[in-house]
Automatic annotation (TrEMBL):
Organism (species): Corynebacterium glaucum
Name used for this protein in its record: Glycine transporter domain-containing protein
PANTHER family: INNER MEMBRANE PROTEIN, UPF0126 INNER MEMBRANE PROTEIN YADS-RELATED
UniProt subcellular location: Cell membrane
Membrane topology note: Multi-pass membrane protein
Family annotation (Pfam families): Gly_transporter
Length: 271
């Protein structure tokens, strides 16, 4: 597939944007872990370049783009230096880091899809390469740092937006609007990622609220009372009466049981 000059230019703009953002985010993680300058540079570079390197290795279409275009290394180094020299912390930075991380999903998904199209691949490999490019850097970084890859805990926030971006771009390309598809796909992915993130938090909080037992039931268990009360009002009355009649030693013992049960319930809820 022959790519126009405008498409190639947009491809490199998006790629370099993703590289710069990923290098900065990776650098801040290395700084937080008190790495030296070598470890710092290594984490920043693998965060920003691994996805593209894996993609190009899978395609086996000559040397990887990061090795043939010096702009990749220069951009990654600039992002790493920025993170190293500037004290990036606080609520404003964490907010920026969160949205920047999601922005890279669309950028990388577009890059992976375009590379696959340029090599004449059909829809399924295009989507697979979009996912590989979008998650590769984060996955390799987490493995190197011996952390559970966020792909396995927040996969809906990374994989689904990458798939959506790739499909959108493929649809636009089908109708001969590849350039517009790249722009739309790069925007849709982070929007979907944000929606999935906040939607998931809302559902989790709602489920927790629904399954949360009333305080009077927890206190009844801690005090050793029967928990099959006829309504919340009766339960509250029985618990209040039991608390008034309990000695200090009994209250301490009940508090110990209450706290132990609370910790156990919250631990099981997160599992």
């Amino acid at each position: 597939m022959e790519l126009s000059e405008n498409v190639q230019t947009l491809f490199f703009v998006l790629e370099y944007t993703g590289v710069g953002l990923a290098a900065t985010i990776g650098g801040t993680i290395a700084k937080r872990m008190n790495f030296d300058i070598i470890g710092f540079a290594f984490v920043a570079l693998i965060s920003s370049l691994s996805g593209g390197l894996i993609r190009d290795a899978v395609l086996n279409d000559g040397p990887a783009a990061a090795l043939t275009h010096p702009g990749y290394i220069i951009t990654a180094t600039a992002g790493a230096l920025f993170a190293y020299l500037v004290d990036l912390r606080g609520k404003a930075w964490e907010t920026f880091r969160f949205y920047a991380d999601l922005t890279t999903i669309g950028v990388w998904a577009v890059g992976g899809t375009l590379k696959a199209l340029a090599n004449g691949l059909n829809w399924v490999p295009c989507v697979i390469l979009a996912i590989i490019t979008a998650i590769g850097g984060t996955l390799v970084r987490d493995v190197v740092l011996r952390r559970i890859p966020s792909l396995f805990t927040e996969q809906k926030m990374y994989v689904l937006p990458a798939i959506a971006a790739s499909v959108v771009m493929l649809v636009f390309n089908h109708f001969g609007m590849l350039y517009g598809g790249m722009l739309v796909a790069a925007v849709i992915a982070p929007i979907l990622a944000v929606a999935l993130n906040f939607g998931g938090r809302y559902i989790t909080a709602l489920d927790a609220k629904r399954t949360e037992r009333p305080l009077e039931e927890k206190l009844a268990d801690a005090l050793g009372l029967e928990s099959d009360f006829d309504g919340a009002e009766e339960a509250a009355g029985e618990v209040v009466a039991a608390l008034d009649a309990a000695s200090d030693a009994q209250l301490v013992a009940a508090l110990r049981v209450l706290l132990r049960n609370e910790v156990k319930e919250r631990t099981e809820a997160k599992a």
